[in-house]
């Protein structure tokens, strides 16, 4: 089995606070991998290390067997951060065009992809509207569209569905499944238990440690629990 | 070219953000005008007494704004003593002697300018002897201020706008988003310098041209040189602003850099005489970009200096830009090692 993302013996501190402790994760090509944990458990830190914008204090991160950070690997993933990271004065089209240009997409390719990703997140009607006039949910969706603009083979999403209504959340997950069909690897962080059930495999995080990794079904079966929440309480309690 | 992509985006943002654009264009002009209205003594009647001035020269002077009265030397000395005249012009041995009251450098400067303007064609004031009745005042103070102010306002406004917008990139998360794409750190910095650089060229031209042609700041040198120096000053301010934004967590902290970084530069840039200060105090001025910008601008505008004379200041300014830019690229390492 080839792993698309590998994190080996990662530990990290901010000052004296320990953020991550001896993390080992391997993510398979083409799966939806979830990072589940309460806020402050280290999800965002892990995700930032995968993208290469944060170097771990100890340990190594590999993307496609290449040590991060690597400019070559940076082309291959799309990253949707927790903040929307959009230019408020610019329209959706200008934002997407800018991000597309960073990945050196040709002009016609950008035009084509902008249409596709805006369709995907259902914002086509608002293409030429400045982002500052968008609602919170619309900004989240545009942020997702920006992460998809260059057809990445890995998508890293940090809390993609926060502040999005259930109908739209459903449709975003539909999109993620569709991308998975096309062979895209998806890494997603969440603190919502029922969202975690939608992942192929799941890493549960608490206080900077991985307390369990497996598919949601196996995790539940293993301890005879009926919900992910019970699983989390089981391992989380045991870790204390 | 990612640098070019970034530049284009910044210019697009500028076009949208009308208020920042207005701030960068209108604010310096507004403040400069106000400053000039306060400092320039134009509205005041300038009373000048004429002592033994030949008739032809007196006729040319009558076209000026000066309030002229002929009187005897004794009377003139008495009147200048109690301040009812601002100066008197005396003819001794075929040569003009100008005696200025001297307690107000603005008035003194204005009178000299008026006399020179009025006598322009066959200028006998060229070898005019100027002295002060209350002789302590430094007459050049007035002329000194103009070039320094041009340099200062360019520096000040570019520093704020450049620093705050780079900071905003940091706080709204787009810098992180940028660095999560295959852009080089140097491309981010050059893109910023390029995008704002294009805009600051316009701004420098505007401030310099407005000061020289509308406010009529004393200027004998080449406009191209003035623009060259103001542009270099703007680039220094821009690279310093973006660099310092790395050490600010929010806009509030960024604004606090102003009294720390900008205000001291004003003290040492030549607005106030520093020759008498201790050597170590003068040395502080030597590490400040505005000192060199103001020095070069004064040279060009007051003494018509060419490249040969102000080149040292110019090279030092270029040095500052290079230094701050490299430090900028280095500071981004905090966000991404590569």
UniProtKB/TrEMBL annotation, chain A:
Domain of life: Bacteria
Gene3D superfamilies: P-loop containing nucleotide triphosphate hydrolases (3.40.50.300)
Domain ABC transporter: 5-232
GO molecular function, one term: ATP hydrolysis activity
InterPro entries in UniProt: AAA+_ATPase, ABC_transporter-like_ATP-bd, ABC_transporter-like_CS, P-loop_NTPase
UniProt keywords, alphabetically: ATP-binding, Nucleotide-binding
Protein name per its UniProtKB record: ABC-2 type transport system ATP-binding protein
UniProtKB/TrEMBL annotation, chain B:
PROSITE patterns to which the protein is assigned, alphabetical: ABC_TM2
Pfam family, one: ABC2_membrane_3
Superkingdom in the source lineage: Bacteria
Topological relation to the membrane, as annotated: Multi-pass membrane protein
Annotated localization: Cell membrane
Molecular-function annotations in GO: ABC-type transporter activity
Keywords from the named record: Cell membrane, Membrane, Transmembrane, Transmembrane helix, Transport
UniProt key word Transmembrane: yes
A cellular component annotation (GO) from this entry: plasma membrane
Domain ABC transmembrane type-2: 108-335
Subcellular location, principal: membrane
Segments crossing the lipid bilayer: 21-39, 144-167, 188-213, 225-248, 260-281, 312-332
PANTHER family: MEMBRANE COMPONENT OF ABC TRANSPORTER YHHJ-RELATED, TRANSPORT PERMEASE PROTEIN
Family of this protein: Belongs to the ABC-2 integral membrane protein family.
Protein's name in the database: ABC-2 type transport system permease protein
Protein's organism: Halobacillus alkaliphilus
């Amino acid at each position: 089995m080839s792993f698309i993302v590998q994190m080996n013996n990662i530990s990290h501190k901010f000052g004296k606070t320990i953020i991550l402790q001896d993390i080992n994760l391997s993510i398979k090509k083409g799966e939806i991998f979830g990072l589940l944990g309460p806020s402050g458990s280290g999800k965002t830190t892990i995700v930032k290390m995968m993208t290469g914008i944060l170097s771990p204090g100890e340990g190594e991160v590999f993307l496609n067997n290449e040590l991060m950070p690597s400019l070559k690997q940076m082309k291959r993933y799309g990253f949707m951060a927790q903040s929307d990271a959009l230019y408020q004065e610019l329209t959706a089209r200008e934002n997407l065009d800018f991000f597309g240009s960073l990945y050196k997409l040709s002009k016609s390719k950008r035009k084509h992809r902008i249409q596709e990703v805006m369709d995907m997140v259902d914002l086509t009607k608002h293409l030429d509207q400045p982002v500052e006039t968008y609602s919170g949910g619309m900004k989240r969706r545009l942020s997702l569209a920006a992460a998809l603009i260059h057809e990445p083979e890995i998508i890293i999403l940090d809390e993609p569905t926060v502040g999005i209504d259930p109908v739209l959340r459903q449709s975003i997950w539909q999109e993620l499944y569709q991308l998975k069909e096309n062979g895209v690897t998806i890494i997603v962080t969440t603190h919502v238990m029922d969202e975690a059930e939608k992942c192929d495999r799941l890493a549960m995080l608490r206080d900077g440690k991985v307390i369990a990794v497996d598919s949601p079904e196996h995790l539940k079966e293993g301890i005879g629990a009926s919900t992910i929440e019970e699983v989390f309480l089981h391992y989380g309690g045991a870790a204390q | 070219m990612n640098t070019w992509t970034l530049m284009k985006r910044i210019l697009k943002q500028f076009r949208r953000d009308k208020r920042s654009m207005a701030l960068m264009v209108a604010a310096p002009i507004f403040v400069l005008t106000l400053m000039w209205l306060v400092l320039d003594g134009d509205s005041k009647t300038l009373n000048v007494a004429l002592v033994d001035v030949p008739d032809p020269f007196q006729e040319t002077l009558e076209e000026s704004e000066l309030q002229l009265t002929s009187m005897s030397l004794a009377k003139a000395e008495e009147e200048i003593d109690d301040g009812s005249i601002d100066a008197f012009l005396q003819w001794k041995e075929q040569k003009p002697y100008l005696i200025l009251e001297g307690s107000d450098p603005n008035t003194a400067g204005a009178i000299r300018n008026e006399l020179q303007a009025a006598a322009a064609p066959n200028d006998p004031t060229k070898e005019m002897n100027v002295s002060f009745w209350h002789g302590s005042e430094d007459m050049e103070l007035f002329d000194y201020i103009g070039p320094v102010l041009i340099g200062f306002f360019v520096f000040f406004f570019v520093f704020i706008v450049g620093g705050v917008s780079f900071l905003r990139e940091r706080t709204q998360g787009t810098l992180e988003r940028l660095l999560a794409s295959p852009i080089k750190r140097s491309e981010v910095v050059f893109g910023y310098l390029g995008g704002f650089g294009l805009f600051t060229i316009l701004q420098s031209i505007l401030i310099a041209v407005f000061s020289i042609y509308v406010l009529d700041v004393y200027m004998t040198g080449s406009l191209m040189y003035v623009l060259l120096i103001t542009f270099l000053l703007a680039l220094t301010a821009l690279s310093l602003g973006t660099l310092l934004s790395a050490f600010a967590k929010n806009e509030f902290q960024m604004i606090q850099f102003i009294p720390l970084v900008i205000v001291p530069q004003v003290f040492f840039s030549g607005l106030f005489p520093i020759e008498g200060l201790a050597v170590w105090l003068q040395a502080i001025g030597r590490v400040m970009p505005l000192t060199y910008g103001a020095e070069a601008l004064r040279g060009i505008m007051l003494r018509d200096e060419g490249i040969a004379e102000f080149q040292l200041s110019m090279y030092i300014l270029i040095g500052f830009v290079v230094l701050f830019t490299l430090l900028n690229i280095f500071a981004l390492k905090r966000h991404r090692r590569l």
